[in-house]
Amino acid sequence: MEVTVELLEEKFEEYNKLYFGGRLLWPYEFYLIKSFRCFGRFSCNQHSPGSRLRNVRIGISMYYDWTEEYLRDVLVHEMLHYKLERSKNVEKKMHGPRFLKAAAEMNEKYGLNIQVHPNLRGLKVSAAAPKRSLARFFWAPAS
User: Averaged in consecutive runs of 10 residues, what is the pLDDT profile of the chain (143 residues)?
Assistant: First the structure.
């Protein structure tokens, strides 16, 4: 499945209801990442712990012909960063103990596979990926 901004918006809404009780606010922006090494990214402006986040952005790599499961796990991974960043207990490390614990709990409760470094074995390069991409040396093109 080729990822688009519209698809990210649709999946965010679906996963927000399913896994976060609809408590995550709509991000400032969804975007496509033009990197084959970075699968997903969450970012926001600096803030004080517990305050409202500003300019929340969630991006997913456009390089892959995502399966439903891989896309779900990567997007929920970024949404989990969003949830934890809103708390009053902000960690210094992006994938610190709180993130790992929360990911393990969600994996067990919902049957997800949220990982820090997902294994993308079997994924193919999307037709939308640039033709002169290094990703084509590492992954097979989508058929």
Answer: 94 97 92 87 75 84 91 96 80 86 96 88 77 59 50
Contact 12, 30 (CB under 8 A): yes
Concatenated DSSP letters for the chain?
----HHHHHHHHHHHHHHHHTT-SPPPSEEEEE--SS--EEEE-----TTSPP-S-EEEEESSEE--HHHHHHHHHHHHHHHHHHTSSS--SSTT-HHHHHHHHHHHHHH-----SS---TT-EE-TTS-TT-THHHHSPBP-
Cβ burial of 64 (10 Å; 0-12, 13-18, 19+) is buried
